[in-house]
Amino acid sequence: MKRIWLVVLLAALAACTKGGEPEKAQASKETEAQVDLSPAYGDTFVDASIGDASTLLPILATDSASHSVAGLIYNGLVKYDGEYNVVGDLAESWEVSDDNLTITFHLRKGVRFHDGAPLTARDVEFTYRVTMDPNTLTAYRGDFEPVESVEVVDDYTLRVRYKEPFAPALISWGAAVLPRHLLEGKDINTSELGRKPVGTGPFRFVEWLTGQRIVLERNPDYFDTDPDTGMQLPYFSRYVFRIIPDLGVQFNELMAGKIDMMGLKPLQWTRQTDNERFRSQYNKYKYLANAYTYLGYNLEKPMFQDVRVRRALTHAIDKNEIVEGVLQGLGVPATGPYKPGTWVYNPDVPKYPYDPDRARELLAEAGWTDTDGDGVLDKDGKPFRFTVLTNQGNDQRLKTAEIIQQRLKAVGIQIEIRVLEWAAFINEFVKPGKFDAVILGWTITQDPDLYDVWHSSKAVPGGLNHTHYRNPEVDDLLVRARKTFDRAERKRLYDRFQEILAEDQPYTFLYVPYALVAVSNRVHGIRPAPAGITYNFERWYVPKALQRHAETP
Amino acid sequence: MLGYIAKRIAFMIPMLFGITLISFLLMHMAPGSPTELYTELNPKVGAEFRERFEAYYGLDKPLPVQYVTWLGRVARLDLGISFSPDKRPVWDKIRERLPITLLLNLLSLVLILATAVPLGVISAVRRGSQFDRTTTVLVFAGFSVPSFWLALLLMKWLGVDLGWLPISGLESLGAANLPPLARFWDRVQHLILPVFVSAVGGLAGISRYMRGSMLEVIRQDYVTAARAKGLPEWRVVYVHALRNSLLPIVTLMGFWIPALIGGSVIFETIFAIPGMGQLFYQSVMARDYPVIQGILLLGSGLTLLGNLVADVAYALVDPRIRFGRT
């Protein structure tokens, strides 16, 4: 359940395709014409979340709530910009050696932690050391596993050497840099910094009322400035993270104007916010989320081993109907594991449009015909029946399963739907491979490396390649792509990878939903980009005349 | 009397022990484990993390060892450390939520008693009247309406459309900067909806109990005798009958003690109140064994204590029970 919310939250706050334009309210534009809309300091931004943070030490946190707050308190060496380019954060510049094995980072000078201590390369080296420390209960050790050594050249220079070239290496240095002077020699697992964080980020910690809210205030010493105005960032005086566990209540709070941003459900987007009162208070932003839903087949089962059968299944499912029926049109059919509109996405892969006749033909070719006239295809005396499993608490997946059930019935395939509690679903069925087919979703990561999901070595019990897809060419492509830094070359490799997946159809890729976000229309400076809208949060502001909260410094 | 209490307490110990054992086993038999929250379908996390996590919390040891270790800690009044990434002591987590749930449930209990007792009495005295029939319908409607639905409806109406009351949470954002009286009023406004909604559900039970109990008492001979002596009706009802008819309610109050700290998941989720119900739900979903065990221990301890208090109270007001048992 928690995971589902997590995906929803990520979807709401994550990336988008080009052209994700806000539905600006006409009324607000008219008022805007009469007031000074230039960037100004002050006001409070009130965010809402369904779950409280667990810890504000990002190295220990695994939930999106913790990371979204900690992301405003800490900086990494690098970060993604709106176009998914890796840009400097605490690092001013870096060089990658010719053999792709060494990265030398040059840090910004004059950056201070919120307690006034200067940030140096030693803090970065400490962060690496504490992540790799076997006593640290962190889930992010894998990020630094390919590192051979980290060397502090001087206070502002750091040299990292890798065991072998590893393309996702650079962005792994986007991990939050921790204050060495406060953590060295202490048990990080129980450090008080988990409740009272000290970082270098645009906002510093004020208070955390468990289950109620986390309050941050503007860091007056923040190193970054707005390139357009030359003003020091951030603009907001305060950031409040409210915990409102029920999405219906969150929506009521939004309608009452008590929160400034919220991810909407399709029904809220199409119906409940389609009125003048809402438009006069909020702008709506729509862009593709970083997630997709799929129907995955267990390739160990004889009935799914023939590629013609899998292609027939995809032909028999109307993805557009699912997008319309389940997402109210607020999504796009998926054709592979990457998001349309991003650099790695290959639009030219084989597609299988809804075509039940073609599905029947392919099934007949594979030997599936209705010999006994009972309406269900059979082969060697066995009817084409299977069970689709999905998890409880996700209505969209259940509705998707029901639509698929009807469509497959029309071509003579009978499916049964079983909905299971998440832990039982994953542990008892998915991990041990005890399933025919599953409806699940993946988050689309910003780096395209999908070795862990699609490489043959991961087709083992507990591995993430739970459909047990094995293809030597895919294995080779995935290994080569993660060692290639050149984007054009990487794209070529991933293009071929997507083609093979589309030909083999180990999954029927179903849909990529839209992230649907409402933001108070007094907030300016939002620039929708492929990475979503929140990537430049520190540049958001409320013009003086529109400011609402009096807690200005 | 003291002997009776001592016996009851002695009987509570094996009961408490049994409850902890069953809850411990049930929790560990449920699918899923605390590590899964981090490792499930996460490409970056390997088996090595799971091993480190399990070793850190002693989850790699056999179940009987884990249980005995836990029991040993509890004997030293230590509920352990939460498995959540914040790794805070379980007691700290319970302690910060307990007052909130307690305050809300006490307020709601006061509201229920203040409404249900008079309603029950009047309904009994005017049995079959228009008032009685209307009250019956209304309290059962309140009992049947799902609290989340009523809560959302009132929020929409009073919070969004009319803007009279805050929708969720315990105080406004700037409340800390308000003068004491204004801050108090802000808190009261935030409590109106939650207390009202939680009281609506509880009203039916108590008012019906009160009505039934009152009906039984006013049929007694001593009430007839009081009437025959020519006492005014209000005196007969509110002085002679009421005291005795309150007895079953006293027993009910005993059962209310654990409910006072238990909190409600649905209710606390809707009003964004960080109480015990929410903590318990989150802990179960995260398989945070120490927190679950801690809350269960507290809950079962208080249930047993509540029963004891109820029985003692009953025995105090009605000596027949005390003598009957000892």
Question: Can you walk through the features of this model?
Answer:
- The complex is a heterodimer of chains A (553) and B (326).
- Chain A has helices at 2-13, 26-32, 64-73, 121-132, 141-144, 169-172, 180-183, 247-255, 266-272, 276-279, 307-316, 319-327, 356-365, 395-410, 422-430, 451-454, 472-481, 487-504, and strands at residues 44-49, 78-80, 86-88, 91-96, 102-107, 147-154, 157-162, 203-209, 213-218, 238-243, 261-263, 282-288, 291-297, 331-333, 378-379, 382-383, 385-391, 414-420, 437-443, 507-520.
- Chain A is of the alpha+beta class and 553 residues long.
- Chain B is mainly alpha-helical.
- Chain B is built from 15 helices and no strands.
- In chain B, helix 5 crosses helix 8 and helix 7 (147-161) packs antiparallel against helix 8.
- The mean pLDDT of chain B is 85.
- Chains A and B meet through helix 5, strand 10, helix 8, helix 15 and helix 16 of A and helix 2, helix 3, helix 5, helix 7 and helix 13 of B.
Features:
heterodimer; A: 553 residues; alpha+beta; 8-stranded mixed beta sheet; 4-stranded mixed beta sheet; 18 helices; 29% helix; disordered N terminus; B: 326 residues; mainly alpha
Write the layout of secondary structure elements.
The complex is a heterodimer of chains A (553) and B (326).
Chain A (H helix, E strand, L loop, with lengths): L1 H12 L12 H7 L11 E6 L14 H10 L4 E3 L5 E3 L2 E6 L5 E6 L13 H12 L8 H4 L2 E8 L2 E6 L6 H4 L7 H4 L19 E7 L3 E6 L19 E6 L3 H9 L5 E3 L2 H7 L3 H4 L2 E7 L2 E7 L9 H10 L2 H9 L3 E3 L22 H10 L12 E2 L2 E2 L1 E7 L3 H16 L3 E7 L1 H9 L6 E7 L7 H4 L17 H10 L5 H18 L2 E14 L33
Parallel strand pairs in A: 1-10, 17-18, 17-19
Antiparallel strand pairs in A: 2-3, 4-5, 5-7, 6-7, 8-9, 9-10, 11-20, 12-20, 13-19, 13-20, 14-20, 15-16
Chain B lengths: L1 H28 L6 H4 L7 H11 L5 H13 L14 H36 L4 H15 L2 H15 L18 H39 L2 H8 L4 H13 L1 H16 L2 H6 L5 H10 L3 H29 L1 H7 L1
